[in-house]
């Protein structure tokens, strides 16, 4: 029983999952920004107390 293929698979799997998690976080962040931009466009006055209307 040789653990070398498992070691190679493990060394390839860990960065893959890290990349997957980072990519998922970036997608979530971009979606969150898109929602914020959509709401900022929908309600230009923003939250009460955040920005006063001139």
List the keywords.
54 residues, mainly alpha, 1 helix, 0% strand, rod-shaped, transmembrane, transmembrane helix, membrane
Q: In percent, how much strand structure appears in the residues?
A: under 5%
What is the count of helical runs? Answer: 1
Residue ranges: pLDDT <50 for 5 or more in a row? Answer: none
Q: Average pLDDT across residues?
A: 77
Structural class: mainly alpha
Distance between the termini: 75 Å
Q: Profile the largest sheet.
A: none
The radius of gyration over CA amounts to 22 Å
Strand runs, count: 0
Proportion in helices = over 70%
Describe this structure in words.
With 54 residues, the chain is mostly helical. The chain has a domain at 12-43. The protein has 1 helix and no strands. The longest helix is centred in the middle third of the chain and has 39 residues, at 4-42. The relative contact order is 0.07.
In short:
This protein is an all-alpha fold and 54 residues long. Helices cover 72% and strands 0% of the residues. The chain has one helix and no strands.
SSE inventory with pairings:
Blueprint: H1 4-42
Keywords: Membrane, Transmembrane, Transmembrane helix
Transmembrane segments: 6-27
């Amino acid at each position: 029983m040789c653990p070398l293929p498992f070691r190679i698979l493990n060394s390839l799997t860990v960065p893959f999952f890290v990349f997957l998690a980072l990519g998922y976080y970036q997608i979530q962040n971009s979606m969150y920004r898109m929602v914020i931009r959509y709401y900022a466009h929908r309600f230009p006055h923003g939250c009460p107390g955040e920005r006063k209307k001139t």
